[in-house]
Amino acid sequence: MRKASLKLSVGVLTLVAAGVVSSQAAARPDAEANGDVRLKGVRFFADETDLTAPTVEAVAKPAPVVATSSPLPAPRSKPSKGAASAVYVARGTAETVAVSPSEAPKVTRPRRSSTPAAESVALPAITLAQTDATAQPLPAPMVMNTRLSDEQLLKAERDRLNGKDNLADSKPADPPLPDDGLGEEGAFITADEVTSPEENIMVARGKVEMRWEGRLIRADEVRYDQTTGKTVATGNVQTINPDGSVQYADRLEVDNEHTSGTGDRIAYIDTEQSKLFANKVERLDEQTNRLSEALFTPCQLCVKNNVTQEPTWHIQASSITQDKKHRVVIYRNAVIKAKGVPVFYMPVLWHADVTAKRSSGFLMPKPGFSGRRGATLELPYLWAVSPYTDIIISPEFSSKLNPLLYLELNRRFYSGDLHSRFGVTNERFFDNKGRKWGDSATRGFMLVDGKFDINEVWRWNFTAQRVWDKTSNGLVSWSNDSNGTSVSTPIAVNQPISNFYERYKVDEGFPYAGDFSSNSRRLISQINLVRQTDTAFFSASLFSFQSLAIAGQHRLSSDLASSPVLYLAERDQTQPAVAPMVDAYWSPDKEILGGRLTLSANAVSIIRKATPSTDIFLAPDIADPSNRGSVDTARANIGLSWRRDMVTPGGIKVAPFLDARHDEYYLRDYYKTGYTLQTGEEDTRRVSRSLGTVGLDVSYPLLRKFNGLTMIIEPIAQLALSPDSQVEPFLTNEDSNAFEVDATTLFKVNRSPGFDLYEGGKRLNLGLKTQFSYDSGLRISTLLGRALRQNPEENFYRTYKVGNQTYKYDASSLANTKSDWVVQAEVDTGRGLRLYTRQRIGDDATIRRSETGVSYFSANTQLTLRHQYNNTALVGLKNSYNLTVVDGELVPTVGYHDLQLFGQHFFNSRWGVSGQVSRDLLRERWLRSEASVIYKDDCARFELVYQRDETALLQQIPGKASESISVRISLATLAPSDDDFVNVR
């Protein structure tokens, strides 16, 4: 979900004068009518229990003393039961004066509120910036509770109060504590002196400080008029709140009823370093607050040559009005500035008030430019429907295309979350040059997911993922730019198009959501019910698929140099539906025969509308593939596994294991409609089989410590014995098409990833692990191993038919008696440099599969280089028709050969560059390339990005890459970055 952050002034718009500085605290007895009582260095505090100090007759009625820029308690008309005694202690003396509880006022809790957004007229808070020759940021406010305190702000403020100019010579003030022992209604006040110059007037002067409800409140002078109920705080008024936010003011004035008040030259810093200034703050009534000449920025304010520098960006307005009755904040003459330069102006701007719980408003616009869509601008608007529901409406306008409307809905329930994204437009097809062809049609996508807890052990989730983007009629019209001719070519009706996401640059089109996800271009709609405890697991699922992988292509003319290519996806009816799939596992709490026992059950039903691929049949030569129908499959199986881990006195680890399973299959509609069944043939098939494996894992870890080095060498062996598997001629292989031998499967009992295949025969798996750990932080780990078997595993062969001849080949390297060598190594220097390699190497030293990479991370630099190679493809590009066959087996060919590079480097704290390239070494072309120039500071990140894409999904015309230039902007509190490098390895 995108962040909704029209924060601006919302978090602080309830006036300083309205709440943070409006209430009053009474802490001292009234002076006599004609007296001029003066107490030097008076401290006031209240307690819930009576103090035993003697009552002084000379002191009569209590009179309030106010010293604050934050909400202070107001006196009640009559004291509450159990009112506290007020105690005054003169500084430097032992004199104590007390009054009776009946005469001491009870401290009341004020209404809580927050504060405003504002403008940069010369404010006293600005003078807190450091004045070094080079630009330095303002000290951050002190942060309390779980946040780290920054004592520079308190030190600077104490220096300011003491009249010091040299910030380095003073000591930081002690931060107020969340719980200072005063309780919820107690207060502690200190001042150099408290006087009553005339009747009903009380004045506290000289470093007035008050601790109340965790706040630390300071002022040079506080004056309270008991007759009018007016309180005035002047001179360096400062409040540090329990959450770490800080407020400053030159002068604050509020009446006794808290219905009106004003503040001059207000500054506010919240816990996220956002800053708010206003030349004047007014509380017009209980529902309306107004700021004049206001400025808001989350950026650091720096001083250079005694001049405060312009922040990276800020918003200023001639006035900001908070209407709490209608829950709206209204800006007049709002201007957004970047480095002091106006970039956006609105005569009137408004958004929801903080009292509305959620804030609706526009998010950061997203501009861009590309050859296929022209200039683009996305304008997202957040509608905060409720505290638990928000909707983001984002129309995207393009100079070459019709608008595309994005809609995002997020809702939180008491038991879980719902997320949904939609996109819809009405447009024709277009290529990278923006040329259009075909008919206009409604096109779009839907991505919905939700997950919910039923109770502590039951949960359910779902996804609904779909793209609507198909051909519309049997002819496609296209205009050739080179000669102006128009041609029409036939094309299949309602054929899905594969590249909607790429044409419109839709991010995260294949999200990882739900219990099942795909690593290919496949969308999954699913619903899952799960129960999980410490000893049991149960799940029931329904799901269907939509593939956006390229299944074919269509050229619009015979002109190969300029004809656009329409890439077509697989038809939806070729994708199966799973209805349902059930998994269940249970392990008892206690050990069985000293080991761990697990019982399992699994069932699945797969429904098809079209003939499946020949790859799902174990024996394609049994019957003519052209006669096969849309085979529906149902399977149920039960199984158990047992394993016990033991260590001999000599340190050898031994683990015997047992795995057993029984399967029942039912196949329906095996032959195509209209096929004439031969004698003995049936259109339904039943298959029953029982499978089992027993074996032993043995390893001998050897550890040796040297000076500065710890070395571990561990030889590993696994012996597994199973009956030889039998090829079932009519059995389908739905769930075990893709697997291979590598470090993750080398020592598995059954290396088939699903249930349709089961590894049989006698096999021995051998490996050697090493690890070298140095005290310097350097760590080196390696693995070398391979799998051996007595007889070939026929079920693991895959087939390829050319004409009437069927060939087989071993893609997994587990079908023959010897597998490829598994080689893996990793070096981590502990200083930001990491190297790794994973290899599958044949006996002839041929590399079958390889992934090698190096990465480096430092404070200013990130670098990742990765090389991938796959020589296990069934048919390669360079020998698709000239297949190599050795001893009846196909020789695998190169499937892909890629090189990827990502780098980012900052030359200083502000400026940097980044780049990402991907090279297809097999086809000898660049795939995706991106380069950007970056500027960032404490509150903003700007990127100028150039992108080039030569993948088939975007190329559309051979040799014509897709290019675009865009700007990524991330402003603190306003919008997140679209930087998509977070998942780079």
TrEMBL record:
> Taxonomically, which superkingdom?
Bacteria
Q: Does the keyword Flavoprotein apply?
A: no
Classification via Pfam families:
LptD
Where is region (Disordered) located? 100-119, 162-184
The alphabetized list of GO BP terms reads: Gram-negative-bacterium-type cell outer membrane assembly; lipopolysaccharide transport
Residues of the LptD C-terminal domain: 512-883
Indicate the transmembrane segments per the record.
none
Which keywords annotate this record? Cell outer membrane, Membrane, Signal
InterPro entries attached here?
LipoPS_assembly_LptD, LptD, LptD_C
Residues making up the signal peptide according to the UniProt record? 1-27
Does the keyword section mention Signal? yes
- Chain intervals with Basic and acidic residues compositional bias: 162-172
GO cellular component terms, alphabetically, are: cell outer membrane; transporter complex
Tell where it localizes. Cell outer membrane
Q: What does this chain do?
A: Involved in the assembly of lipopolysaccharide (LPS) at the surface of the outer membrane.
What is annotated about its quaternary structure and interactions?
Answer: Component of the lipopolysaccharide transport and assembly complex.
Q: Which PANTHER family match?
A: LPS-ASSEMBLY PROTEIN, LPS-ASSEMBLY PROTEIN LPTD
Q: Which family does it belong to?
A: Belongs to the LptD family.
Q: What is this protein called?
A: LPS-assembly protein LptD
- Native organism: Asticcacaulis excentricus (strain ATCC 15261 / DSM 4724 / KCTC 12464 / NCIMB 9791 / VKM B-1370 / CB 48)
